[in-house]
Amino acid sequence: SKVTFVFKQDQTIPYAAVKEELEAKELGASEEIEFGFRDKNLSLVAVGEEGDRYTVSSTIQDVEAVQKLLHGRFGESLQTYHVHLQNIHALPAAETEGEETARTDRFAGGTAAQLDFSLGSDSDEDGRVSFETATQLVQDALEATGHGGAASALSNIEFQVGSARRFSQWDVQLALPEDQAREVLSHLEEITNDSPIFPLANKIGGRVAGDMRSDAIAAIAISFIGIVVYIWFRFQRVIYGFAAVVALVHDVLITLGIIGLSAFVVENVPLLASALLIEKFQISLTIVAAILTIIGYSLNDTIVVFDRIREVKGKSPKVTAEMINTSINQTLSRTLLTSLTTLLTVILLYSLGGDGIHGFAFALVAGVMAGTYSSIFIASPALLSMSRLAEWIDARSA
Predict the structure, then answer these.
(1) ∠ at Cα 81 (76, 83), nearest 5°?
(2) 89 contact partners, CB below 8 Å, separation of at least 6
(3) Do residues 167 and 27 lie in contact, with contact meaning Cβ atoms separated by under 8 Å?
């Protein structure tokens, strides 16, 4: 889940204190969040430069539980909604002839009103709410007052179906007489004005996670196909492309394996995990981005080695072990210098970059190390083996 919370302007809390509070043990809470965000892959990111809002990500799937935990930890320091009711009036029992306003029969004889959300400033977007949020607030108020079965509808002249845009004003219609509708709306106003603002509150469910996984696999597979085609075109032999992809598959698998190993290290060797800043990293879109970055880095190094092999090979019809060995020796200094400078950069990014890119930088550190040796010990031997296999097939065909 991912939730953004906002502090009141005069009650902001420093980043370090916020994270310490979130990681502290929560006594008396539900079992799911008994230890707060501890061991829940907590990621805290400061949003903006004013230091009044943060986004917390974790493996806790229950968004409402996270919101309750945040409310319990920071209480009155959190910014709350300000909702005001305006223009409450009864709707006609039937449409007047010739009226152009479209109003469904289910609200005939019901009540309409306007909900104004704000933080005291019309320009403050945090005070605005989305269609889904406003609908949920109205539905909760209906159920709390014993009118859960009553129809309701919200509208805004600028709202488009499916849009996530938030508005400070919503027109609401209730299929209730005015006196009952006022009870519902008063309850909504009372409860909402004490509710903390969470500008972003969502979770990635199983279906969405499955779609993300499929898209990530598809992105990596398409990149491999493109690499084979490109290297085939550049070196005029498809075996160069396949050999490069073998090395890239190795890099991806090693990186994923190290990411998976992080959870084992955190649980079994906590002192080492703390010293190396290791967390329970999980596959996310940022990790996928890191993997694609690693593929690009490792491919560049592999192409440098293959270029030298092609130069050493010249017009010789065969690729031999001696040619590959000579080529690797000639490019080794370049490979080490490039890899060391890149590794130094990503290590600094990992240690000093902050929570937002911690997992991304960790994957890069693992991938750069794997990509460095794979160009020498994976791609080159694979090219030699495929070259010999191609020669054997040609000989059999002849």
Answers:
(1) 140
(2) 111, 112, 113, 178
(3) no
Q: Which range (49-53, 134-138, 258-262) has the least confidence?
A: 49-53
The total number of residues written for the chain in this structure: 398
- The amino acid sitting at 257 is G
Q: Tell me the average pLDDT across 126-155.
A: 83
Task: Determine which helix (DSSP H) or strand (DSSP E) holds 169, and give its type and residue range.
Answer: strand 169-174
pLDDT, residue 204, reads 45
Q: What is the pLDDT of residues 190-221, one digit of tens each?
A: 888 777 877 766 444 444 456 667 777 888 88
Provide the edge-to-edge strand list for the sheet that holds 82-90.
82-90, 111-118, 169-174, 152-155
Dist CA 386 CA 331 (whole Å): 22
The per-residue DSSP string of 210-244 comes to: HHHHHHHHHHHHHHHHHHHHHHHHHHS-HHHHHHH
Angle CA 239–242–248, to nearest 5: 145
* Position 31 pLDDT exceeds 60: no
Residue-wise pLDDT tens digits, 237-269: 888 889 999 999 999 999 999 998 988 888 888
pLDDT in tens, 91-103: 887 655 544 444 4
Rounded Cα distance between 47 and 29, Å, is: 27
Name the helix (H) or strand (E) containing 257: helix 238-268
Using only C-alpha atoms, the chain has a radius of gyration, in whole angstroms, of 30
**β-strands 111-118, 53-57: how paired?**
unpaired
Distance CA 201, CA 309 (A): 54
pLDDT classification of 122: cutoffs 50, 70, 90: very low
Helix, strand or coil, per DSSP, at residue 26 = coil
Task: Render 351-369 in DSSP notation, one character per residue.
Answer: HHS-GGGHHHHHHHHHHHH
Kindly tell me if the per-residue pLDDT of 37 is higher than 50: yes
Residue 237 main-chain phi, psi, to 5 deg: -140, 130
Confidence (pLDDT) at 105:
65
Q: Torsion-angle region of residue 42: left (phi > 0), alpha (psi -120 to 50) or beta?
A: beta
| CA separation for the pair 148, 142 (Å, rounded) | 5
Q: Are 277 and 357 in contact (CB under 8 A)?
A: no
Structure tokens at 182: 């006022």
Closest CA to 85 of 175, 189, 184: 189
